[in-house]
């Protein structure tokens, strides 16, 4: 923990009505100078009073205070195409994959661009790296070369259920596996490949099998994706991508702030999906010229 953060938390522990302050994540001061913590005690019964106390502590000037928000897991529509129907199209393997034609990825492949030498950090539900289309292994020399599991299988949003480990493998959700395949799937019997099959992936699992995550976990994953040392490549991902079920049109949320600061201070492009939330209207902005393509039922993109 950084000294300024420790001093601040110690001062908060000394406040009347505070029984315990438990640090959850202390983020890199170079990228996002913040700390996530849980407070227990009678003072938590009056959140406005607790907030004023935290803002008024002289030990550290606090610019923003945010509650930890739950982040729902990303969803996907399931078996749009079953395996047998994909296998029936495998005879077209030598032809162009139609989604790649739509966005002209096929043109890049023809020119020899496959993403070689690029590292992409995927912040999502984890990945089934055992899948043959994703290389079947995890670690140096593999397609899924680096990553981390921040949550474990049973995280329900409460800190006590966090069970992090060094392997982002999962097979209970599948969304992160889907995203990884869209990016980098290798040639396979079903006749498709990813948009950039030459990249190396770093996958950061932020959703449990129960579909739970929180904004402080997501921020920790983004920062780790930017800072992880990757064998033979150096420090950090070249691109960070995130697909979550978090609904917000505001740039001042902690997750948006963290992504913006990481991108600004490292130069790493941080990409977030526009989402599938057509039920929330064209846009959460009042500006009449700003619209989200996810609003259209027959949309071409997220």
UniProtKB/TrEMBL annotation:
Residues 115-298 form the Peptidase S8/S53 domain. One of its GO terms (biological process) is proteolysis. The keyword GTP-binding does not apply. Transmembrane segments: none annotated. GO terms for molecular function: serine-type endopeptidase activity. It comes from the Eukaryota. Residues 279-302 are annotated as: Disordered. InterPro entries: Peptidase_S8/S53_dom (IPR000209), Peptidase_S8/S53_dom_sf (IPR036852), Peptidase_S8_Asp-AS (IPR023827), Peptidase_S8_His-AS (IPR022398), Peptidase_S8_subtilisin-like (IPR050131), Peptidase_S8_subtilisin-rel (IPR015500). Signal peptide: none annotated. Residues 286-302 have a biased composition (Basic residues). PROSITE patterns: SUBTILASE (PS51892), SUBTILASE_ASP (PS00136), SUBTILASE_HIS (PS00137). Keywords: Hydrolase, Protease, Serine protease. Belongs to the peptidase S8 family. This is Subtilisin BPN.
């Amino acid at each position: 923990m950084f000294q300024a953060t420790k001093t601040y938390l110690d001062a908060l522990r000394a406040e009347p009505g505070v029984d315990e302050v438990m640090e959850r994540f202390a983020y890199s001061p170079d990228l996002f100078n913040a700390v996530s913590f849980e407070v227990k005690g009678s003072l938590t019964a009056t959140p406005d009073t607790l907030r004023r106390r935290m803002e008024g502590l002289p030990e550290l000037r606090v610019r923003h205070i945010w509650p930890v928000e739950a982040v729902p897991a990303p969803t996907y529509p399931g078996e749009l195409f079953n395996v047998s129907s994909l296998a029936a199209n495998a005879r077209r393997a030598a032809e162009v994959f139609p989604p790649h034609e739509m966005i002209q990825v096929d043109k890049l492949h023809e020119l020899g661009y496959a993403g070689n030498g690029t590292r992409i950090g995927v912040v999502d539900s984890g990945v089934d790296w055992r899948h043959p289309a994703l290389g079947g292994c995890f670690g140096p020399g593999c397609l899924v070369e680096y990553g981390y599991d921040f949550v474990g299988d049973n995280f329900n949003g409460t800190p006590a259920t966090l069970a992090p480990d060094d392997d982002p493998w999962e097979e209970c959700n599948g969304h992160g596996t889907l995203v990884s395949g869209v990016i980098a799937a290798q040639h396979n019997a079903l006749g498709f490949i990813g948009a950039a099959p030459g990249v190396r992936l770093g996958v950061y699992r932020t959703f449990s099998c129960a579909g739970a995550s929180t904004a402080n976990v997501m921020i920790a994953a983004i920062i780790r994706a930017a800072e992880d040392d990757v064998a033979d490549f150096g420090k950090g991902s070249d691109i960070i991508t995130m697909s979550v079920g978090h609904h917000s049109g505001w740039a001042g949320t902690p997750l948006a702030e963290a992504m913006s600061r990481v991108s600004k201070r490292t130069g790493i492009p941080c990409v977030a999906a526009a989402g599938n939330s057509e039920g929330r209207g064209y846009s959460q902005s009042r500006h009449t010229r700003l619209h989200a393509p996810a609003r259209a039922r027959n949309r071409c993109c997220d």
